[in-house]
Write a structure and sequence with these properties.
about 55 residues; alpha+beta; three-stranded antiparallel beta sheet
């Protein structure tokens, strides 16, 4: 099973990955496992559910 993308933020955001990390924390606080990964192709940070590499 692959990862599900829960949210996406721009990597060029002035605060870097912080917005994505904050979103991931909100998902975790709601009981949904979430982590942040970098998508180099789209130059964005993705908040994803943990899982196998897709």
């Amino acid at each position: 099973m692959g990862r599900e993308v829960l949210a996406e933020t721009s990597a060029s955001h002035p605060r870097g990955s912080w917005p994505a990390e904050e979103l991931a924390k909100e998902f975790r606080d709601q009981g949904l496992p979430a982590e942040v990964v970098m998508d180099l192709k789209s130059d964005s940070f993705l908040v994803v559910t943990p899982g196998g590499e897709s």
